[in-house]
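#data-curation
PF: Archiving a pair of folding outputs for the training set. Convention for this channel: one message per protein, sequence first, C-alpha cells after, nothing in between. First:
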Amino acid sequence: MVFESIKRTIMDIMGIPEDEILQGCDIYNDLDADSLDMSQIIIALENEYKIEIENEEIAEFKTVKDIADSIEIRINK
C-alpha cells in the first residue's frame, strides 16, 4: 500500500513515530516538515516507485493523503 510506504519514508527521514503519521496529517503543520524534509521524502518516493512528480504539484501537497493519491495515479496508469 502506498500510504504504508510513505509512512515508512517519513519515519526514516524525519524520525516521527509511526502512530503520529496519519493520512489526514498536514505535512507542514502536524508533522513539522520543512521544504528540505519534503524534498527528501519526494525524492525517496520517486526513486522507490520510479516516477517523477512535478514541482508545481509538490507545492500543492498539504497532507500525506495528497502524496499518496498522486503516487497511486501514476502507478495505476
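PF: Second:
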Amino acid sequence: MGPPTGNLDWLYHLLGYTLAAAGLLLFLWALLWDRSRGRRRCPKCWYDLSGTPSRQCSECGHEAPSEQRLFRTRRRKRIAVAAVVLIAAGYTTSRVPLLQSGGWVELIPSTVVVFVAPPSNAPYLSVAAPPLAVTLPMPTLSLKEQLTLAAWSRMESGRLTRWQERAFLKRFLNANGTEFASFIAAPPKWPTDKDFPLLVKKTFIPTGTSTPLTTQFVFAHPRREGAKTITFPTPLQFERHLPVEFRLLFGKREVLRASTQLPVFIEGTTETLLASRSDDAATTLVQAALNPHLSELNGKPWLILYDRADVEPWNRIAFGIAATFEVRSQDRTIGTGYFIPQWTRSVWKHWDEPEVTWSEDPAEALRRAPLHLVVRGHPEPILKQYLAWPFDKPAVESWTGEFTVQLELRPHPGF
C-alpha cells in the first residue's frame, strides 16, 4: 500500500536524501578518487611522468618542487563545490515539510540550535484550535525567540539526540539559576534521635511548552516519601554526606542525570540541638526589634509589640524568638502573656497586640505609676518550630536572654 496521496512529505524526504547522497558521493569522488597509486604525475596538468626521470613535465613544462609532489591525489575542487551545493540542496529539500510549518529556522541544524538559542522559556507554541471568524495576527518573534522556540519544539517532538537535549538543558538550568541545590534542601543541623527530613521539589519547571520538566530523586537508604518531604528513619546511616541521584524528566523521557553527595550535619540530640543566644548584643537587638510600648485605644492602654519586618534591626536577627512577658507595676505583676514573632518571614502587619491576662485594670495601674515590661526568651517553642520545618531557618539558635523596659505611651501604629 503506497503513501497517502494527500501528503507529499515522503516525496520531499526521498528527493532530499537522494540529492544529498548523490552530492556526498560526488564530493568523495572529487577529492579522494583519483589517487596516484604509485604513478608519477605532473601536479599541474596531471600528465603521466612514469617514463620521465626528471621532475619537469614534458607536456606543460612545470617542474615539481619535490619528488613527493609527483604522487599527489588529484582533487577536482570545482566538482567538490558543486557537490557541496548538491548536498545543501538535498538538505533543504528534505526540510521543506518543516519549513512549511516552522519557517526558515528549520534550516538550522539542531547541533547549532542547542548551542546558539538563548536558554529561556519558549515564547509560545502553536496549538490546534477551531478556525476563527476573524483572522488574528500572529505575534512576531525575534530571531532569538525563534531559535529558543525551535530548541524546545524539537525537544518536544523527539528530534534532538540525548546529548543535544543535555547540552541545551544544562544551559537552560544554569541561565535560570536552577541548579541541583534549588530542588532539594536539608536542615542546617539535625539531631541523631529524630527522623531526618529532606525538602524535595517534585513540582514541574515550566518550559513554555506543553511538556514540563519534572524532578526525580533516587536514594540508597530506606525512606518514607511524602508530598513535599522525604524522611529517613532512625537510626540514621549517614552523618555528613547523603548520596543522592538526581534525574530530570522532560515529560516521561529522562533527559539529565547527576549523582552527588548532599552535605548534611547530624550531631547531638534534641536537647542539645539549639544554641542559646543570651548575650548582651542579641538581647539589645531583640529589645529594639520588639520595641514594646503602650498605645491608648477606646480609653484603654494596649500593649504593642512588633513582628518581623524587612527593616533594621530585624534584618540582623537570624535566631528564633519566643518570649513570655510580665507587665509590672510597683514590683507587682498585673499582666502576663507570650509573643512569638516570625522567625524568617516578614509580615505586612508588622505590629501586634498580644493577648494579656490582666489581674488588675491596666488603665488604673498606669494612672498610679509607670508600668514596666519584663521579657524573657524561651527555647521550647523555637525548638518545636525548627523540628517541624527546619528548611528556611538560617541559624539553629534561640534567644534566651531577658530585658526590662519602661512602657511609654505612644500613638497606636495602626492609626
